[in-house]
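Can anyone check this?
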Amino acid sequence: MLLTRRFFMLAALICGASFASAQDKEPKDASPQGERWVSLFNGKDLTGWTPKIRHHAAGDNFADTFRVEDGVLKVSYDKYDGQFNERFGHLFYDKPFANYRFRVEYRFTGDQCPGGPGWATRNSGIMIHGESLKTMGKDQDFPVSIEVQLLGGLGKGPRSTGNLCTPGTNVVMNGKLFLPHCTNSKSKTYDGDQWVTCEVEVHGNKLVRHLINGEEVLSYTQPQLDERDGHAKELIKAAGGEKQLSSGTISLQSESHPVEFRKIEILELEE
């Protein structure tokens, strides 16, 4: 009996040690569901990202528009020459993606840069399925892409976020080609400088979902190039006539209102 009891005690110790060892080897970025999110932002600098600001060459971060301070990626205009002058900008991640979940926390701060258009007040966005930096013209304002529009509340009335805009593109909704440039989501309004989490779930050309603070607010299918747009028409020709978009670049916008981003992460999906 004593020998049997010692055997079970030794077995329990061995199992406990093995379990602890396995826990130590668990990937640090793995969620309880086994999801492995990868950070695209190191919290120190713009490594992995390339700015493209209108009227400037790719890589020219005019007036330090995109900068990292206190671990936060900031879009700022304090070094501009007093006017925005339609210098719309985008910060491109260096690698394109096809099937993924992209997640970012954002908030609007301060006042809009003088000269910024009225519609751009507390306005930014995440561009997905975007064109390559190589095909963008120096004076081009927006990349041909699908825009997940981010809007902050104005302190009066509803103003949704996680909306859809389509520079040079179209999507399909409810089984029909959807042609309006922008459409609102069913999200709540987020006033002030509170942090908001936006997630975009992308399944190539099959399905795109917008989620705000964990709730789906908009979805659509078949993102595609719009042959009514001159530049998109060039991209269609270069692609051998193919309009459907199954992958592309991801970029963050600068549209004249200061905005901050943090926890920029991606979870690639197997399709």
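Reply from J.R.: I decoded it. The two ends are 56 Å apart (CA to CA).
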